[in-house]
Here is the input.
Amino acid sequence: MGKLATIICFVITFLLLGGIAVLIAWLADKMKSPMFSIDQANINGYNFTADNHLNATFILEVRSHNRDSKYQIKYDLIVVSVYHSGYTLAYDTTLGPFTQHHGDDIVFTARPRARNVLIRNPELAGDIRNEARAEKLGLEVHVRAAVRYEVARWKHKSYVLRIICTPVFVGLSSGKGSQSTICDVDRF
Ligand SMILES: *[C@@H]1O[C@H](CO)[C@@H](O)[C@H](O)[C@H]1NC(C)=O
Ligand SMILES: *[C@@H]1O[C@H](CO)[C@@H](O)[C@H](O)[C@H]1NC(C)=O
Here is the structure.
């Protein structure tokens, strides 16, 4: 082999190894999921009729903390839904987009609204009535978010976050609101 061929061979090997090292570092780079909590939960305009039609606006203060020390998180799409006993009562799709720098908190208010929602399940209707009588509804809040982790524009990864917060107690009269509920966060 000539001297030039040796040098070219060396350079190619060097580039290949460098490329593999960068790829491994990239794959091994574990970003942390943000933490979520529901800090406050209230209800407005509650009306549940005798024929089981529900009107209510849930007012949920959602807090998110980016625990990652490197990545900023872009929330492109966020849906907040309110469940009771596995049934969806209301959802809010008007949220975001948000950008959250590493280490930062964001707080936003979701207002899922139930408008004339017919509750077909008699057991659920009974539960809602009993809880309303006690002025405290026990709900489950789900948050779905399409997010993008970014260090730089060229280094980013996209995920879906599935966030479940339970139990979230919503007071019907002011002063009976919830304490903060910490959520479970899954990323995929
Ligand atoms: C609840 O809804 C029913 C039917 O729409 C209405 O007649 C009633 O006045 C409402 N009650 C309240 C407290 O808004
Ligand atoms: C819910 O609100 C709508 C208007 O937004 C009204 O037409 C309907 O009668 C209300 N239903 C109840 C159960 O209050």
